[in-house]
């Protein structure tokens, strides 16, 4: 722009000079040097104009770049402000984290102590578990050895049993053949047996009829026998009671006679005079039964009754 202004000034001066020269020297012919200078100046002007257009285009492009850069600067300033805000928040966050770190470090120390004590306990318990497991493994090994021995024994037994089974299979096949033969024989026997059974059934029906007749006859005889036994038992009881009463009377008579022989008539009279009773009353007193004898008689009477009941039960049963 400055060069353009300088050239324009020079052109104006030259024009002014040419005008003054044309006025003063109108009559004179234009000089060749002035024309040449004019042409040179015009060329320079054209060149300068071209350069100016070029520079204007460059200026416009530069202005666009400047605007873009300003926009970028604004964006970056906004980013910087955001980053500053983030930085402030991060600083606060870091301070919180530091405080938390301190607290966590304190907690870590306590937890480390607790962990160490726990580790010791765990190590002890693991050592005890290991010892127990070792003993358990040893016992399992012993069991395994015993199991292998038992397995070998069972295998031997299995082979023996297999051989025996093969032998028994042979026997079974033989037995099956025999069974088939026996079934055939049984079928023949069944046919013969069925015929014989029919004959026997007919015979048994006849025999049953005769047996039923005999049973009816026997029932009548049994009833007669039961009535006879009942009458016999009653008569036996009655006769036993009579015998017992007779025996008692005979005993009493013998005792009374012995007493009369022992006692004199004078003693009887004395007793009668003392008691104010006649001699006959005294004899009756002497003949009174003892309590023991009455009890015995009752017991015997009850035993007789029981015996009668027992006989009746026997008769009622089969």
From TrEMBL:
Keyword Chaperone on entry: no
GO cellular component, one term: centriole
GO biological processes: centriole-centriole cohesion
Signal peptide region: none
Domain of life: Eukaryota
Keyword annotations: Coiled coil
Biased composition (Basic and acidic residues): 1-17
Region (Disordered): 1-33
Residues forming coiled coils: 137-192
The name this protein goes by in its record: CNTLN protein
Source organism: Ramphastos sulfuratus
Gene name in the database record: Cntln_1
